[in-house]
């Protein structure tokens, strides 16, 4: 084991003191490359119940089922005219049912009072059970961790240098991360040398569009998958609805991510995943990602 320790230290560009700092405060410096430049910021994950919405409606927290709702919207758009035809058929069937109900004898229309009371009691019991289930779901949602960034009112703050980032952190300015429990500890301890992003926290969004244009044989899976990770976090935290929808479960870009993950995993599934990738249109994917990066760039506020 001792022989492996130097390699681990080489792979990690941060000192032991710096690693302990970020581990203690549960906040991480991240590096994002956008068409407008490379910037540093901070990101943390906390239970939804601990993170308050920011002022002005563009807050830190989005309802946890927004991605599912977005996925449903994507599915509706995919169905297109078929959905409208299905709705028409459903209405026609309902009309036929109503016509049949009109022919029922009056004796069947008048329910016994005791039966009505029993039905009401059953309904009340069902409502109570539904309310309990809803309460449990709400509690689970509140316990889920959500991303929160250094920023405010639907914007993420970026800094061209670690020096400027640390200067802002110690300035006492208002921002969303100030509400996390460890913020005061971070302000006291952080130094310029501590602002070093690990490889998993470094995102090259400026390279995604060009890479996608090259087609499946040229696609860089780690580059695209990491871009999707930070884009989802930013969209979730800053309420960037077009990005939420574009990357929602079941969307074309989500399908692209799933195929890339399967292809990277190897094995039999990798063979089929590579065949799926060849069916994904490179042009449409690159255009969709160009829009996403444009939306993210629009909410990036350079503070130096």
Topology readout:
Layout: H1 5-11, H2 16-25, E1 27-34, E2 37-47, H3 66-79, H4 81-102, H5 106-109, H6 113-143, E3 145-149, E4 151-152, E5 155-158, H7 162-169, H8 183-189, E6 202-204, H9 208-213, H10 221-238, H11 241-246, H12 252-265, H13 268-279, H14 282-299, E7 300-302
Parallel strand pairs: 1-6, 5-7
Antiparallel strand pairs: 1-2, 2-3, 4-5
Helix pairs in contact: 10-12, 10-14, 12-13
Explain what this protein looks like in three dimensions.
The relative contact order is 0.16. The chain has helices spanning about 5-10, 15-25, 65-80, 80-100, 105-110, 115-145, 160-170, 185-190, 210-215, 220-240, 240-245, 250-265, 270-280, 280-300; strands spanning about 25-35, 35-45, 145-150, 150, 155-160, 200-205, 300. The protein folds into 2 domains: about 25-75 and about 145-300, no CATH class; about 80-140, no CATH class. A hairpin with a 2-residue loop joins strand 4 (about 150) and strand 5 (about 155-160). The protein is built from 14 helices and 7 strands.
Structure, briefly:
This protein is of the alpha/beta class.
Q: Proportion of β residues?
A: 5-15%
Computed over alpha carbons, the radius of gyration is 26 Å
Shape call: globular
Instruction: Tell me the quaternary state.
Output: single chain
Tally of separate domains:
2
Spatial order of the strands forming the largest sheet: 3-2-1-6
């Amino acid at each position: 084991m001792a022989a492996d320790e130097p390699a681990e230290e080489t792979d990690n560009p941060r000192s032991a003191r710096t690693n302990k700092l970020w581990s203690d405060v549960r906040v991480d410096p991240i590096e994002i490359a956008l068409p407008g430049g490379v910037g540093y910021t901070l990101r943390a994950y906390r239970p939804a119940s601990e993170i308050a919405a920011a002022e002005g409606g563009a807050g830190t927290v989005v309802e946890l089922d927004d991605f599912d709702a977005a996925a449903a919207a994507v599915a509706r758009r995919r169905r297109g005219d078929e959905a409208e035809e299905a709705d028409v058929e459903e209405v026609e069937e309902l009309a036929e049912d109503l016509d049949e109900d009109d022919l029922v004898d009056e004796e069947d229309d008048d329910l016994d009072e005791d039966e009505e009371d029993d039905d009401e009691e059953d309904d009340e019991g069902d409502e109570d059970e539904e309310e309990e289930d809803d309460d449990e779901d709400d509690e689970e949602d509140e316990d889920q961790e959500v991303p929160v960034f250094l920023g405010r009112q639907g914007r993420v703050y970026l800094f061209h240098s670690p020096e400027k980032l640390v200067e802002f952190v110690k300035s006492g300015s208002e921002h969303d991360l100030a509400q996390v429990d460890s913020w005061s500890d971070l302000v006291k301890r952080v130094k310029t040398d501590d602002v070093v992003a690990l490889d998993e926290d470094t995102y090259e969004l400026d390279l995604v569009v060009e890479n996608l244009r090259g087609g499946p044989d040229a696609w860089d899976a780690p580059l695209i998958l990491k871009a999707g990770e930070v884009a989802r976090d930013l969209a979730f935290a800053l309420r960037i609805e077009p990005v939420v929808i574009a990357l929602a479960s079941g969307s074309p870009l989500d399908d692209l991510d799933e195929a890339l993950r399967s292809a990277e995993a190897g094995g039999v599934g990798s063979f089929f995943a590579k065949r799926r990738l060849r069916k994904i249109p490179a042009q449409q994917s690159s255009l969709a990602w160009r829009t996403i990066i444009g939306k993210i760039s629009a909410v990036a506020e350079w503070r130096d």
